[in-house]
Specification:
heterotrimer; A mainly beta (383); B alpha/beta (230); C alpha+beta (853); A: 383 residues; mainly beta; AttH-like fold; 13-stranded antiparallel beta sheet; 10-stranded antiparallel beta sheet; 1 helix; 52% strand; globular; C: 853 residues; alpha+beta; 10-stranded mixed beta sheet; 6-stranded mixed beta barrel; 28 helices; 61% helix
Chain lengths: 383, 230, 853
């Protein structure tokens, strides 16, 4: 072999060796770890006993409490029967207790953090979309008011426009909801007159009411394509300060709108030992708005299949049989889509389901929403 | 002492080549009277050039004494030997060793100039010498334009320009054809013997050696006198 | 082709090994040349990376931003945009330069952000997994003065979350708190966060007192919808705000630092050019010395091609080792160079927030290939020469030198042509910066090529001149002339190095003189005040109004002139506005062109016109009588340009206007510097001391007397040329190695001759004299020829390179020092290079020397 070639080869080898051994710059994703102590819940009021509700004032915010959410879910159809589910929630979290308001001169100095979740299940399209927004409750970026009831996070809006009419507006990356909700049934106080106890300590509770049958009309946009839809929505509004008790890892929550005019709300709190917490409870709401409270022993929830999320690797129950013998109610719930997991600041499954079963011996159908938390990570979260 | 112009007394010289010690001279002795022409014979590598170098003071013996005109070269410093050489020694080499960047005249006059002579004096004297060696017209030529014989004539002129007492010649005809060699030898003999100078000449050529008054052999590091025509 | 005999290679290797000193010097030459190129490349890459990171850290991935000008944007603007449902990523920013005695008092950028808006822009707070919980952010949001620092800073200064620290904002100390520590997960973010601390935007509003305002809103606009979105956004904005492209903000700075870096790269290439001469010299020498051996090899049946490969393979071996050494040296030099380069960039261009050494692998590959390529190119001609050697060459020396004589003449003609053509192109054609540097190289190398021939022509003259000192005086010039084949490349190398030294020193000297003259015109007041820690040339930090009031009321103050220096937006990117209320400012400027007398110009400025500095005029291609457009609080507005003035304070340039006009148009009352005229007979130094003592209670201010300001300006000026000096030094070192190597080679060759000379009576002292006379002559000739070359280089640097790089023209101030210095360097270097060869020559006995044959 000719020496010149040998040298060229040697040089290339040296050069490539140097290059290969040289430390590479890794992906320029800058990760951050913020080490700081959380603000304690002291200074906030606790939900520690029943108290009177006053609507429409109580539709609005309760800044005395650290955590609050306005939770809208619904099952909607187009005229030609294309089915959509949606979830639109705005969470509020107090980061400074109310007695420390106005300490700082900046308008941007925040006492509240708001988080919004928008999820749309396009059943026929087989797609589930979920988006999140965060903003401080300052400088008008996000906030909540009453009279009229108005919660907003940037341009995401929940707003009362009439005695029993509300509009919802949220949009993100081609997904949008623009809905008008009409409440013909009125708010239903959950638990003990709105005092919903979640644990043995009286403070492990929330104030909780629902608007269980909201006639809904409006527009859903998927990737810029608009669909005129109508159907039913459900609203939950809860506020509390540290509702969850120790040992509780998450909950399964059900809201079902039966086509005979009844609604069911059920939740079971799961404990870290796998058992169901005795503070699980529910309610059956009659067409006239009256409700029957259900205690943990009044209902049985059984799940059949499971589904493992490809995103979080969490395993969720999928499909439920619920029986409430005292109410002669036997139903089966089937998710419209398996993958309705929201992989956002926290991970939970919140999805549209359809139901079939019998009530008072008559075959009934309907729709509902199921929320499952604490499967991917312990859910003693911030909101 | 008056009769011995050059005296080599127990001179030893060893060259080291790496680990190897190569003794060239081992307690060599030689005595040469004023005006004598001496031929130095010996095999290649026997140390002829070394002895000439020691006699000229270019090189220094390890031990012993070298007396030239009553001065011990071995006791001198490098600078003293240079001064001594400038004054008393003329050198003729096998390969002529002229300086290619100098003209013939400059080559010849250089020793005088180095010794401090005025330029004019030096060139005049050089021209004189060139005349003697038959190169009166070549003074402005560059030396490497000359033939071998001519170059050696220039070298002889250079060796004699400062009128030295001792002329050392190292194979002066070794690089020349026979005719030219004889001419050079004639010239060298004439210019030394007739001027009463001493000539010590290392040679392989026995005919050249026959021209000398004495023949000395260098063998096993010793100098051995050889009878002429013996 | 027949297989290459390994024993033939041995001929090459053995030669290198048996001439260790020559080989070592050749290696050193290549290594130095490569190291300079690598170190500058490393320094440039680090500076560029630092700049990128500074930008990335601050700008993030934004494509545009909403600017509200100097007074900022009303914070509601952001809310309005947010609530308009634009679905455009947007992030509000309010930043502030701070320092902290608890964080080493280094300048830090306090970046006020809204963490919820940040994720698409700057990713420090986010991981790609599910990040920290909300609760961990609480302290950041709620505690006044809460900041986040990187783990590195926290470790360096021993600070933990929860620790209180003091923050120095605009010369006032305010309480702060470490709310958290950011763990950067890669090197880039680690470096980005070395000089950036984060805080919630509310915190920065409170600390800086800019309540109700933000600085800008960063935007990410998709290219295809850009125009529509900008229109939509601008509809929502007040007249005082404008949407601008993010790159405009960086481009000017990039252009400027780019020019600076091109200057450095060009200078570093000189090291290699000088190295090229050196390699050529050594290789040529080794070939010439072995002509006989090559002839013998040829006689034995070796082909010319094999000889060619033999010589190239030697060069290659030397090239590889030399380049590797050079790369290693380059890293070491590079670390030093990075310091100098970033320092200069900081002083002259902008406050770079990110520092540190980036060592891109490409630098090494570039350096190694450059070294190897240079070596091979330099070896080509010698290798070709060697291949040509006829079997059993008996070519005599004089024949060789006469062939060479022709070659030198050809080279001289070629070189002269090259220099003339280069000069013509430089003068006649508008070249860009890189082409201009190529032109300089053309001139310098052209001159260099004529050096050997001119030397030969000069030597007989010199011989006559030196004749009176004796035979050595005649011999030395002739030796120099006759050894041209050995010494001319080294001489050319030395000439180039010295010429560049002259050119650079003349340029710097002229620049310095221009600056001094200019300072004399513009600094007419007694005391100058700005906020401590702000840039000396461009103070943009506001002085507290209380401090201004105090100064106004100070005894013996005759007049106080206010200055607002600020960046405003323009359609061409940000422009520095310098607004003052000095009624005599027209007389304190040097106008290069203008409409009328200086009084008339200043009257026009008071009436609403502007004057613009020379660099800005050059960058924008504007002159007196043109218009410049700026975004004011009332929207875009055109200003008449009444004059162009000389300004060396910023190569970015600025526009100067009447302060009341500025305040009206931008609604900004801030003052960033002021000058004080003291009553006649006042002890100014005492006044400065008193002011310092009293005003520092209000705000840390830099209060300088006229004299102190001048000297500090010059200190910074000198600092910014440190890197230039360092590069010159290395180039001269390479040239020195070249001369040393050439002299050693020559000495080696002339051993025999030296032996003869000694045999015929050359004394030790004469050996020294002869050798040093020869090298001294080489140095003197190189130095002499470097004088006109250096002058030409200086002219090109002053007239062309400075204008292209920085936008200002400078007058040549001819001083004798650079020339004298250069002569001294040339002769000194050459003499120094002769010392060792001379010493070696004296050490060898004549006998040894002659036995060499």
């Amino acid at each position: 072999m000719r020496p010149a070639i040998i040298f060229v080869v040697v040089i290339l080898l040296i050069a490539s060796g140097v290059y290969a051994l040289w430390p590479k710059q890794s992906d320029p994703v800058i990760a951050a770890q913020v080490l700081a102590t959380p603000v304690p819940a002291e200074g906030f009021a606790r939900a520690d006993g029943p108290r009177p509700f006053d609507f429409p004032t109580d539709f609005g915010p309760h800044f005395d409490f650290q955590t609050e959410w306005w939770y809208y879910t619904g099952n909607l159809d187009t005229a030609d029967g294309r089915h959509f589910g949606y979830e639109f929630t705005i969470f509020r979290r107090g980061i400074l207790p109310p007695d420390r308001a106005g300490e700082r001169p900046s308008d941007w100095a925040a006492q509240q953090i708001y988080m919004g979740h928008l999820a749309v299940s396009d059943v026929d399209g087989g797609e589930f979309y979920a988006h999140q927004r965060l903003a401080r409750g300052a400088s008008g970026l996000a906030g909540a008011e009453n009279a009229p009831y108005h919660v907003w996070l940037e341009d995401w809006t929940i707003k009362q426009t009439n005695v029993n009419k509300y509009i919802l507006f949220a949009t993100n990356e081609g997904i949008a909801i623009e809905l008008t909700l009409t409440d013909d049934k009125g708010p239903v106080l959950q638990g003990d007159g709105g005092y919903s106890q979640k644990g043995p300590d009286p403070g492990n509770a929330s104030y909780y009411y629902s608007q269980t049958r909201l006639q809904t009309e409006g527009m859903i946009t998927i990737d810029g394509e608009e669909f005129a839809v109508s159907g039913l929505s459900w609203k939950d509004h809860e506020y509390s300060t540290s509702a969850m008790a120790t040992g509780q890892v998450g909950w399964d929550w059900f809201s079902i709108q039966i086509d005979d005019g009844y609604e069911i709300m059920l939740y079971q709190i799961r404990r870290d030992d796998g058992s169901i917490d005795p503070f699980s409870s529910g309610a059956l709401i009659a067409p006239d708005g009256s409700s029957v409270q259900l205690a943990a022993q009044d209902f049985v929830i059984e799940s059949g299949d499971t589904w493992r999320s490809p995103h979080s690797n969490a395993e969720y129950p999928m499909g439920w049989t619920i029986s409430i013998p005292s109410q002669d109610l036997q139903i089966e719930l089937t998710p419209y889509l398996e993958d309705q997991e929201l992989n956002l600041a926290f991970i939970y499954w919140e999805g549209a389901v359809w139901m079939s079963g019998s009530h008072n011996g008559i075959g009934v159908g309907g729709n509902g929403y199921v929320e499952m938390t604490g499967y991917a990570q312990p859910f003693n979260g911030d909101f | 002492m008056a009769s011995s112009f050059v005296k080599v007394e127990n001179v030893s010289k060893t060259y080291s080549e790496g680990e190897q010690q190569h003794a060239v001279l081992r307690n060599a002795n030689l005595e040469i009277g004023r005006g004598e022409l001496v031929a130095l014979l010996g095999a290649s590598g026997s140390g002829k050039s070394t002895l000439l170098n020691l006699l000229s003071g270019i090189d220094r013996a390890d031990s012993g004494a070298i007396w030239v005109d009553g001065q011990n070269l071995i006791a001198m410093s490098e600078a003293e030997r240079t001064l001594f050489r400038r004054k008393h020694i003329g050198f003729v080499f096998q390969f002529f060793n002229l300086l290619p960047t100098l003209t013939v005249n400059e080559n010849v006059s250089l020793p005088l100039e180095l010794a401090g002579a005025k330029l004019k004096v030096a060139t005049g004297k050089a021209a004189e010498l060139l005349d003697l060696v038959g190169l009166e017209n070549r003074g402005d030529s560059y030396s490497d334009r000359l033939s071998g014989g001519e170059q050696q004539r220039v070298a002889i002129a250079r060796a004699l320009v400062h009128d030295p007492l001792l002329v050392l010649a190292d194979e002066p005809t070794g690089n020349l054809d026979e005719d030219t060699g004889n001419q050079i030898m004639d010239l060298l003999e004439k210019l030394t013997r007739n001027a009463g100078k001493n000539l010590i000449m290392a040679t392989h050529n026995s005919l050249n050696a026959q021209r000398a008054d004495r023949i000395v052999y260098l063998r096993d590091g010793k100098l051995v006198e050889k009878a002429k025509n013996g | 082709m027949a297989s290459f005999s390994p024993s033939l290679l041995k001929v090459g290797w053995r030669y290198l090994i048996s001439h260790p000193l020559q080989t070592a010097l050749m290696l050193l030459g290549i290594a130095l040349g490569v190291s300079v190129a690598v170190s500058v490349d490393v320094a440039n890459a680090s500076a560029a990376r630092g700049f990128e990171l500074s930008i990335e850290a601050v700008t993030g991935r934004s494509t545009h931003y909403v600017s509200g000008g100097p007074s900022g944007l009303a914070e509601e603007t952001y809310t309005d945009l947010r609530r308009a449902g634009l679905e455009v990523p947007m992030a509000p920013i309010l930043s502030q330069m701070i320092s902290s005695p608890d964080l080493g008092d280094i300048p830090l950028q306090l970046l006020g952000i809204d963490p919820f808006a940040e994720e698409p822009f700057r990713s420090y707070l986010y991981t790609n997994t599910n990040g920290g919980s909300m609760e961990q952010m609480d302290a950041f949001f709620t505690i006044p003065g809460a900041i986040l620092i990187s783990t590195e800073l926290s470790e360096q200064y021993g600070l933990q979350p929860g620790d209180a620290i003091e923050l120095n904002l605009n010369g006032r100390l305010l309480p702060g708190l470490i709310a958290g520590v950011i763990e950067p997960q890669d090197d880039l973010s680690r470096r980005a966060l070395q000089t950036i601390v984060l805080a919630d935007i509310s915190t920065v509003q409170e600390l800086s007192g800019r309540l109700g305002f933000i600085e800008r809103i960063d935007l990410i606009l998709p290219t295809e919808q850009e125009a529509g979105l900008i229109a939509q956004i601008e509809d929502l904005l007040p007249a005082s705000a404008v949407v601008l492209a993010a790159e405009g903000r960086n481009r000017t700075v990039e252009d400027l630092t780019g020019a600076f870096q091109t200057n450095l790269a060009a200078l570093s290439m000189l090291g290699l050019v000088v190295g090229l001469f050196l390699i050529y010299n050594t290789m040529t020498f080794s070939v010439v010395q072995r002509r006989q051996s090559f002839g013998t090899l040829r006689a034995l049946g070796t082909t010319g091609r094999e000889i060619f490969i033999l010589v190239l393979s030697e060069a290659l071996l030397v090239g590889i080792i030399g380049s590797l050494l050079g790369v290693g040296l380059g890293i070491i030099f590079g670390r030093g160079a990075v310091e100098l380069v970033t320092q200069t960039i900081n002083d002259v261009f902008y406050a770079q927030t990110v520092r540190g050494v980036s060592i891109p692998p490409s630098s090494f590959i570039k350096g190694a290939l450059l070294g190897l390529g240079t070596t091979l190119v330099a070896a080509l001609i010698p290798a070709w020469e060697a291949a040509k050697s006829p079997p059993r060459s008996t070519l005599s020396r004089s024949q060789l030198e006469s062939t060479l004589g022709k070659l030198l003449r050809t080279a001289a003609i070629l070189g002269a042509a090259m220099a003339v053509v280069s000069a013509f192109l430089l003068i006649r054609i508008d070249l860009n910066l890189t082409a201009s540097f190529a032109g300089i190289f053309g001139v310098v190398i052209g001159f260099a090529l004529t050096t050997p021939w001119i030397t030969q022509q000069l030597m007989p003259l010199v011989a006559r001149l030196l004749a009176p000192i004796g035979p050595l005086g005649r011999m030395a010039p002739r030796e120099v002339s006759n050894s041209a084949s050995r010494t001319s490349p080294a001489m050319a190398a030395l000439m180039v190095a010295v010429a560049v030294t002259i050119g650079a020193s003349l340029m710097v000297g002229s620049f310095r003189a221009s600056v001094i003259d200019w300072l004399g015109v513009i600094l007419r007041n007694d005391i100058y005040v700005s906020v401590a820690g702000s840039n000396l040339a461009e103070p943009m930090v506001a002085i507290a109004p209380e401090a201004i009031e105090r100064i106004n009321a100070w005894p013996n103050v005759e007049a106080v002139h206010l200055l607002r220096l600020v960046q405003v937006e323009s359609p061409q990117g940000p422009i520095t506005v310098s607004a003052n209320d000095n009624p005599n400012d027209g007389d304190e400027q040097v106008f290069l062109e203008g409409e009328g007398t200086s009084q008339q110009i200043w009257e026009a400025v008071k009436a609403g016109a502007m004057i613009i500095s020379e660099p800005l005029a050059n960058h924008l291609g504007l002159g007196a009588g043109d218009e410049i457009r700026l975004f004011t609080q009332q929207g875009e507005k055109a200003f008449h340009i009444a004059a162009v003035f000389r300004d060396y304070s910023s190569s970015r340039g600025n526009v100067t206007m009447w302060l009341p006009n500025y305040q009206e148009l931008w609604g900004d009352e801030a003052v960033t510097a002021l000058s004080v005229k003291a009553a006649a007979g006042t002890d100014v130094d005492a006044m400065v001391d008193d002011m310092r003592a009293e005003l520092n209670q209000i705000q840390f201010l830099e209060i300088r007397s006229n004299l102190a300001l001048r000297s500090e300006t010059l200190v910074i000026f000198d600092q910014s040329f440190l890197i230039t000096n360092a590069l010159q030094l290395i180039t001269t070192a390479v040239a020195f190695v070249g001369v040393l190597s050439a002299m050693l080679s020559l000495q080696l060759e002339k051993q025999r001759q030296m032996g003869i000379l000694k045999a015929i009576g050359l004394s030790q002292r004469q050996v020294w004299a002869l050798t040093l006379l020869e090298t001294g002559l080489i140095g003197a000739i190189a130095g002499l020829l470097a004088l006109p070359t250096g002058y030409a280089v200086a002219q090109i640097l002053l007239r062309l390179i400075n204008r292209l790089s920085f936008g200002w023209t400078l007058q040549m101030h001819l001083q004798p020092e650079p020339f004298i210095q250069a002569m001294a360097i040339a002769i000194g270097a050459a003499l120094l290079a002769g010392l060792y060869p001379a010493y070696r020559a004296t050490q060898r006995s004549a006998a040894d020397a002659m036995r060499f044959d």
